[in-house]
């Protein structure tokens, strides 16, 4: 990741990259332990190269470069014996030997942002806000990271002691921003100022999109201030003021990849479920694309029959899976990968083999309210009652539409099906993404 950090040279209330917070060994261990073993090794190498994170030799036995060479030699040995080296040993090396003086703010910020890139379970949950002008029109934004950093520092340092870290996501068109604010809390036993940190805030600026994603925080006052500072720091002028509008009826999404698909400058955000191939360019090929790739020239798939050597139940199941794939992913084989998703070499020791049912944008929560007319007459209804039912149901899980996809092919017997892919309404196949809404007389209405 390429990054920009605040150095604190012109602002007294900005902590420098090299500031080392007072953290005990257990806290430091927990910070590093959130990383994968591979990422820990990569950070050891990176930190030996950066000026603000280079280790200090513990004795005169080594020169500065000699100590760095010693560390790099040990890392090489760890890599060669990767599977047998426990993660605890690597963390202990960092805490008690390589960086025994403690991790500084730059190192901690880099770890936090790497968790987002690694798709770690310890990464923040995301919600979104929309940038609008004074006429309530959405405004796509594109920032200069360095200029935006200076604006953030200028606006925030009038209110808090702070540290801000900005970097570019290595695969997605997202600029990540980590904002940490501090309070001075008297003196500790060493007669040094004791700094209390608030939970870090994370923002993701989706390039050329009017949407900004950000983490959630329970500290209402500080959260409100940080959001206002971020809003004032957006590229604007007195004649064209911008505001940040946060919808109330939204639930956090775990994956930044999902947020990039749903809120980024991508056709996938409005083309999910059966419409996915239109966003992927599979159906409506580009005007300058190779003509032989057009659907008209592609050989039609051979229809499977019982003569293929399979039993009737197997034929039924394959047909059912094709229907389910079409409904949930818009493809017979169900394989659709949006641009910017996991690359072939993006693997770590914790990576899992993708399931055939995985959604391209996993969503963890959705909620629908079904409002239908049951057929009662006006005499049976109360005053002001339009006669519609109001049934609300919620679905939660790691990948709710991927789970529904899997449930839809559990049985070929219509009587035993939990969800029939031929009859499932479009809003249960993921077409509406993370949108909540009402189902009024069969029509989805976004909340």
Automatic annotation (TrEMBL):
UniProt protein name: Central kinetochore subunit CHL4
Disordered: annotated segments: 331-357
Transmembrane feature ranges: none
Pfam family, one: CENP-N
Protein's GO biological process: CENP-A containing chromatin assembly; chromosome segregation
UniProt cross-references to InterPro entries, sorted A to Z: Chl4/mis15/CENP-N
Highest taxon above the source species: Eukaryota
Organism encoding this protein: Candida viswanathii
């Amino acid at each position: 990741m390429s990054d920009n950090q605040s150095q604190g040279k012109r602002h007294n209330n900005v902590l420098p990259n090299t500031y080392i917070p007072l953290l005990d060994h257990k806290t430091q261990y927990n910070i590093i332990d959130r990383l994968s073993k591979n990422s820990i090794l990569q950070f050891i190498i990176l930190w030996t190269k950066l000026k603000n994170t280079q280790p200090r030799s513990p004795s005169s036995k080594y020169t500065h470069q000699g100590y760095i060479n010693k560390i790099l030699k040990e890392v090489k040995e760890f890599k060669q014996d990767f599977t047998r080296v426990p993660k605890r040993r690597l963390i202990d090396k960092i805490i008690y030997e390589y960086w025994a003086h403690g991790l500084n703010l730059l190192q901690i910020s880099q770890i936090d942002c790497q968790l987002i890139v690694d798709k770690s379970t310890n990464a923040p949950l995301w919600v979104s806000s929309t940038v609008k002008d004074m006429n309530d029109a959405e405004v796509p934004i594109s920032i200069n990271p360095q200029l935006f950093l200076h604006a953030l520092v200028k606006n925030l340092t009038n209110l808090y002691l702070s540290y801000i870290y900005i970097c570019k996501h290595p695969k997605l068109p997202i600029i990540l921003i980590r904002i940490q604010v501090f309070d001075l809390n008297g003196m500790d036993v060493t007669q040094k100022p004791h700094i209390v940190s608030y939970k870090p805030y994370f923002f993701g600026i989706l390039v050329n999109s009017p949407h900004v994603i950000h983490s959630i925080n329970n500290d209402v006052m500080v959260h409100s201030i940080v959001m206002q500072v971020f809003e004032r720091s957006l590229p604007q002028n007195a004649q064209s003021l911008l505001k940040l509008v946060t919808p109330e009826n939204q639930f956090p999404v775990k994956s930044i990849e999902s947020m990039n698909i749903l809120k980024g400058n991508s056709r996938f955000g409005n083309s999910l479920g059966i419409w996915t191939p239109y966003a992927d360019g599979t159906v409506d090929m580009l005007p300058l694309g190779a003509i032989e790739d057009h659907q008209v020239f592609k050989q039609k798939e051979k229809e499977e029959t019982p003569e293929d050597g399979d039993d009737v139940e197997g034929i039924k199941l394959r047909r059912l899976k094709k229907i389910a794939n079409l409904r949930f992913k818009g493809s017979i084989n169900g394989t659709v990968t949006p641009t910017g998703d996991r690359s072939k070499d993006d693997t770590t020791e914790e990576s899992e083999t993708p399931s055939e049912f995985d959604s391209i944008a996993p969503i963890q929560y959705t909620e629908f309210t079904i409002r239908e007319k049951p057929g009662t007459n006006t005499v049976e209804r109360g005053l002001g009652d339009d006669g519609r039912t109001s049934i609300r149901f919620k679905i939660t899980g790691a990948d709710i539409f991927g789970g529904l996809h899997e449930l839809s092919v559990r049985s070929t017997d219509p009587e035993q099906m939990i969800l029939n892919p031929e009859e499932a309404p479009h809003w249960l196949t993921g077409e509406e993404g993370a949108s909540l809404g009402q189902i009024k007389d069969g029509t989805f209405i976004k909340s």
